[in-house]
Amino acid sequence: MTAKSGEGRRVDVVVIGGDVNGLVAAHYLARAGRRVVVVQERREIASEWETGWVPPQIIRELGLATPRLRIEAPDPWITAPLSGGGGLALSRDVAKSAEAIKRVSPADAAKWPEFCARMHRLAGVLEALYLQPAPDVESRDVGELIRLGRLGMRVRRLGKQTVIDLLRILPMSIAELLDDWFESDALKGVLGALGVWHLKQGPRSGGTAFNFLHHHVGSAVGVFRPPRSNVREVLEGLPGVEVVQGDPPPARVVVSSADPKTAFEPYQAQLDPEFMRAVHNIKARNCVVRGSLGGTPPGAPQCVAPSLDYLERAYDDAKYGRPSANPYVETFGNEIHVQYAATVDSGLESRVAAALGVPAYQVRLQTPNGHLYHGELTLDQILFMRPVPGWSRYRTPVPELYLCGAGTHPGGGIPGAAGRNAAKVILKET
Amino acid sequence: MPKLDFAPDHGQLRSHVSLRTTPFHPRTGPLSEGQAWRRWAGYVVASSYELSHDREYHAIRNSAALFDVSPLYKYLVTGRDARRLLDHVVTRNVAKAKVGQVLYTPWCDNEGKQIDDGTISVLDEQTFRMTSADPTLRWLHLNSSGLDVQIQDVSDTTAALSLQGPSSREILQLAAERDLSALKYFRLTSAKIRGIPVTISRTGYTGDLGYEVWVDASRAVELWDALIETGTPYGITPAGMLALDVARIEAGLLLIEVDYFSSRHALIEAQKSSPLELGLAWTVATDKERYNGQAALEAERARGPAWRFTGLTVDWDSLELLYATVGLPPRLPTQAWRTSVPVYADGRGGRQVGYATSGGWSPLLKQYLALVHLESQFAKPGTELLMEITVEHRRKAAHARVTPLPFFNPERKRGGA
Amino acid sequence: MKQYDAIIIGGGHNGLVTAAYLARAGKSVLVLERRPRVGGAAVTEEIFPGFKFSMFSYVVSLLRPEIIRDLDLPRHGLHILPLESTVTPMENGNYLAAWADHDETRRELYRHSPRDAEAYDEYGHLMHFMARAVKPILSMVPPDPTSFAPGDLAGLLKLGKHFRGLGAERLHALVKLMTMSSADFLDEWFETDVLKATKSASGIIGTFLGPRSPGTAYVLLHHYMGELDGVFRAWGFAKGGTGAVSEAIASAARGFGAEIRCDAGVSKVMVKSGRAIGVALENGDELRASTIVSSLDPRRTFLQLLEKGDLPDDLIGDIRRFKFRGSSGKVNLALSGLPKFACMPDGGPGGRLHRGAVSISPSLDYVERAYDDAKYGEFSRRPYMDIVFPSMIDPGMAPPGKHVMSIFVQYAPYNQNGGWTDAKREAFGDAVVNTVESFAPGFKSLILHRQVITPLDIEKITGLSEGNIFAGELALHQLFFLRPAPGWAKFTTPVRGFYQAGSGTHPGGGIMGASGRLAAMTILKNGR
Lengths: 430, 417, 528
What we know:
heterotrimer, B: 417 residues, alpha+beta, six-stranded mixed sheet, six-stranded antiparallel barrel, 9 helices, C: 528 residues, alpha/beta, 17 helices, globular
């Protein structure tokens, strides 16, 4: 690696990528006394908000809880227009949501509190898994085996019902899960949307129940949308690490928060072709377009996914390589999330505008630069299978290279968790 | 990736399945007296043309034997990074290879276990022909990501004949109307034989003076006719796989699926071998850029391989004695065998220290030979061992001595005219 | 009244296997079959004079070899003949063929993609390993992961050990197989669409999923299971149709002393203080036995044969949630001659095409679209079909010179919009026949007789709930210790002395007999 900007200096660690995971990793390493330089790439101006739950450990340990930190948790957390007029508004208060649901289905309203409690308990299991490196099921190491055993016992202590739920629900489709509980199309549409969030799968695809739970991790009981925060901005203002642009200085350890395909590209000549095949096989199929909404932003987040069939049909188009004729659209402030579309085609903005009931000129969409999560959160790409099977512990076949991005465990939608886990591994190993 | 269409079949062989025949089949077909064919890479080739392969074998060592080796997999690797790709794949140093050179080389997986072996011909700075025993297109592609290289499967469009034996040079010189004495061992040259453009490499699978002639499949029959016509006064003899098998054992040359398993086809770890264990340490370069399996091979070289591949010569007196006890003279198989045979340490209750994977009677050396895998400590030349032998339905052990390979290595193989 | 050691409800192949094993162990056994003949979904019937059909199940893929050996089935007439090839006609007039000969198949694949031809071997190699890894699980009674009983903990530990023993590469492949869609899994290996379509089609059989639905990759393994058992080919026909398999097992069971009674539908299992004591027949008769085994599907086993009060509520809930969703139909045709497929009018070298399967799966999108129709409640307008000509393998299936054609069709949803009617059934039959016609012009003129079977028909005739041919979907959340319900995957039920043995229990699926055998083993062990 040639150094220009960093000529003449030596640092311990170079972190490539100034996103939340990169910055979190850098700060943890710096706090442990390593000389760290973060190489920032040109920032995508997709959003000022970082979507997803920032583990409180990170906020505490890095001292991010300053007045600058804003975590947006709107109430109601979602509103959805109803076909017969009016809307379904789900609040942070479980009882209040139940009241709202009662208007579309009293039966569903009755089940709502239990559903919320069950899902929260299951998400809690994932939360425990996410704040440490993925369990290494192949390990022969006694310590790791003990950790695995503890994890197993911990899960089993949650009770028979939780264990059964976990085993049954994780491989399920969100549609099957919701059909087990509810009858209201509107409610199932709103919840089902979280099951396919950033996933090129429809609500009837297996594994979408897991995706649903993944995005519930860290949320309050009865809230099924991840929060948003300006954590990146706060991290950028945090002293302790140097951020440079351009070529990095030489370092003993390189940590990359880039997606694995990009991260390994410079090294492919020295890597096992079978490993590179696994890297190329990472599924990261773009299916979300994001953008902004002009005019006064709506007060509460909006969701246009009136039923599971609506979502499924939106996905059907994507299956055959087309953007959805009737896309699933969601707003948060003046931000728009559109699924399924890989690029912005000519009619997409007007279709989104129609779905939201606003004039077309107010919708501005942007073709994304790669998959936001660096790899879809499907069951074959999580835990010890992420980013590629056998290399889930942030280290790579390149001795000096570590990964810390969304492509690694626990994946996208939990900003900073991978960075924190990676930093801990790096501190132990280097 | 070009979608290749199959070249039309060269004459049909009646068979339950539609196997392919090689471009030489219009000539080799009628020659086959016993219709004894065997499969090779999806083609059929002659086991022997005559009912017995004896005469064909002796032609290899006495005059010149002509083999149809068209079923070999052949790839043309071209482009700016062609050399880099091949250097990255195989264990020999391709970076240093000169135009006109042919390299025999194995290639390995990331764990340093052998996938296959074959040759790389440097046709020009950016053009290489690779031959292999197993299909290798996918492996080359997997290794070529990010490289500026084209890989073309020319297995069907390139035909090849192997002319082996003491008279092979004279025949080829006459046919090509040029002096080949300057063509050194494992070098190649382009030439014309009766106007047919060919590449001639001084290579082969017999351990003798010999050449392989590479030709466009469309001119294959003409080439055959030209060589037969020119060679007849010199005793040229079409020969099949049975004769070749005897010669390659004498020459100590490995055969995939017989003497070793490709690491990609091995069912268990123990079936895999490294080139260091297969007597191919000389092909594992120490002065080259990173290649597949390098780290593992360097580590293995440093600690010494657990196994060695070498020769074993069965003691004739011991053999005679074993047969004499049942009242018979020694009876040996007429063809080379390819079954696994246990080899034991010498002495009473000697434990098994290895196994032979090929063997047979050498009509030339008048010796019973075997190619063996031995635990390293037993592989020193001259070590006395026992090899299992079945005498009148009963298992016995014959004395045998570790012999370095090749068993037969005539001066003419490498020598000048 | 005679007191039996065991009464088996349902004379399908699993019930018969259980009966045979129990009788072999010296138990007095009675099998009660509702229909006039044994076999359940594995029956051969002469629907038209001279033409015999394997009515529902039509290929024998996975019948456990240990069952064939233990019960000495060849002596009872079982002869499984290999299915030699698969030809997939493509919409552009080309085709993809997999022949019995490896070299030939390689060459055929090479025609489509040289790289795929190589990948195919490596893929086969991996799948061979994976099949080996999964096989022990198929013949294992699933431990209960929620239980703290020493037996279950030991079972879990054994399972954990087994998986860890596979080695990293294979463990990862197993996780992928269990969780991925067959299309995604195959994408990692191949580039030829028609190859992926044909392979993935085998992953959707009997499920209500499409080739792009996660969870379908696992069934790809089934193709490789058979090879491990030293069987020549993974797929085969039973001489005399699949009914001959049932007949052979029944004959073996009788040979061991079992009694088999047909036209004897069971209406209830009689339970007294939490213990099964006998069964009540539909005709009002009552029969007694200390062990009652149901080989019916879980819904009928738990919700129909028992009273609500016999079962805990959460089990009832679990069984209600158990997914059946029959998705396939069958069209059986009597033909005056063999159809000519446009892609291979001469039937291939030696006319081999008709001796193997013809798969109507010309592209992934084609199969996926077939699924899309069903997803929204309609039968596929252009369905995926697996076609075989049993009379080409066993000439006894049709009059000389004439043929029978068996068409397995997917998708035909049980919950067809508006419900299945006679008119809908015929419309479905027309869709099937017209689609075949598009690949084999002139085929329709050969049809002498046509029988169309919808999932509703399957349910009505065989009793299989929602017409699901596997007695419950083979989905990841309905396998192993979740089949049919968590806590009740070990062939026992909350009613003492009452066991389950059908395809709705682990491992389930196809004419395999493993469930029946494992159930018998469990009963014998518990009875000791």
